[in-house]
């Protein structure tokens, strides 16, 4: 896999700060095919970060929406016929218009048809795939060890952003670990979906998918930590993280980022 160049882990906090500022300044448009439960929170997270979301699934218009978007998210959380058709049209439009796209293969570990579809989508070359340990194991047929994740990324020419207690991002040669976040993030529906949408937004501005993914994880993780400090539980946290995404600045990101190789 061609890699644009090294990414010293010490540079990631500054990269995250730069991209967070650029998201507000340039307001990239991100089209999201995502699950029904996640649409509202995902849209609000993108808006809070400075982006412009769109969510249409209509076969008649999704191609035009994606062609004019800056990035695309394909999330398999709701695996219905309408979304499968929309994904096919959207990916064609993305490739024809050089729009980078991200795959979030939600729950492929629980459904063989969903897993088969996700593997078909991987073959269509997303810039990045964001998933958890169970999803990776199902998709790759191997446990989520560092070596297995790097091998999968290299073999499929895709950046893998593996979520967990510490997030691991690799393109098969380069690797970055991001240890930001808070347990409350797992208590809010669509938090992972919003993170994948934010990764897509960063890809609109930074076409090196590994750099974009690492920065997006830092942005979301730091916002989560800051939100948790003032929250009483999942309800107040869901609101607080939107506020923190909206107000994140360079000092907060560079101070709180926890990045290693």
Question: Would you write up a description of this structure?
Answer:
The protein has 261 residues and is α/β, with parallel strands linked by helices. It has a single domain (11-260), classed as UDP-N-acetylmuramoyl-L-alanine:D-glutamate ligase (3-Layer(aba) Sandwich). It is built from eleven helices and nine strands. The protein has a nine-stranded mixed beta sheet with strand order 2-1-3-4-5-6-7-8-9, with helices on both faces. Helix 8 packs across helix 9 (209-228).
Q: CATH topology, which one? A: UDP-N-acetylmuramoyl-L-alanine:D-glutamate ligase
**Sheet with the most strands?**
9 strands, mixed
Q: Going by CATH, what is the homologous superfamily?
A: Ribokinase
What would the average pLDDT be, to the nearest integer?
95
| Beta content | 5-15%
Distance between the termini: 19 Å
The CATH class turns out to be Alpha Beta
What Rg, in angstroms, do the CA atoms define?
17 Å
Number of domains: 1
What percent of residues adopt helix (DSSP H or I)? 40-55%
The residue ranges in which pLDDT falls below 50 over 5 or more consecutive positions are: none
Please identify, by name, the CATH architecture: 3-Layer(aba) Sandwich
What is the element string, with H for helices and E for strands? HEHEHEHEHEHHEEEHHHHE
Identify the strand order in the major beta sheet. Answer: 2-1-3-4-5-6-7-8-9
Helix/strand/pairing class, anyone? Answer: alpha/beta
């Amino acid at each position: 896999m061609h890699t644009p160049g090294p990414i010293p882990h010490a540079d990631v906090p500054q990269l995250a700060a730069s991209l967070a500022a650029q998201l507000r300044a340039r307001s990239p448009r991100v089209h999201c095919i995502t699950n029904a439960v996640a649409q509202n929170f995902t849209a609000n997270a993108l808006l809070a970060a400075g982006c412009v979301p769109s969510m249409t699934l209509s076969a008649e218009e999704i191609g035009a929406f994606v062609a004019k978007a800056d990035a695309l998210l394909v999330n398999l959380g709701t695996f219905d016929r309408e979304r499968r058709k929309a994904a096919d049209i959207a990916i064609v439009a993305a490739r024809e218009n050089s729009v980078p796209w991200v795959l979030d293969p939600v729950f492929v570990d629980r459904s063989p048809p969903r897993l088969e579809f996700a593997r078909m989508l991987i073959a269509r070359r997303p810039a990045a795939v964001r998933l958890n340990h169970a999803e990776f194991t199902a998709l790759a047929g191997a446990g989520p060890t560092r070596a297995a994740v790097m091998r999968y990324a290299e073999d499929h020419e895709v950046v893998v952003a593996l979520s967990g207690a510490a997030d691991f991002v690799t393109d098969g040669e380069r690797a970055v670990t991001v240890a930001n976040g808070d347990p409350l993030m797992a208590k809010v529906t669509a938090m992972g979906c919003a993170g994948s949408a934010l990764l897509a937004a960063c890809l609109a501005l930074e076409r090196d998918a590994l750099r974009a993914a690492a920065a997006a994880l830092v942005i979301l993780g730091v916002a989560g930590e800051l939100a948790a400090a003032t929250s009483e539980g999942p309800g107040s946290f869901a609101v607080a993280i939107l506020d923190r995404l909206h107000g994140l600045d360079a000092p907060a990101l560079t101070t709180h980022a926890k990045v290693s190789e």
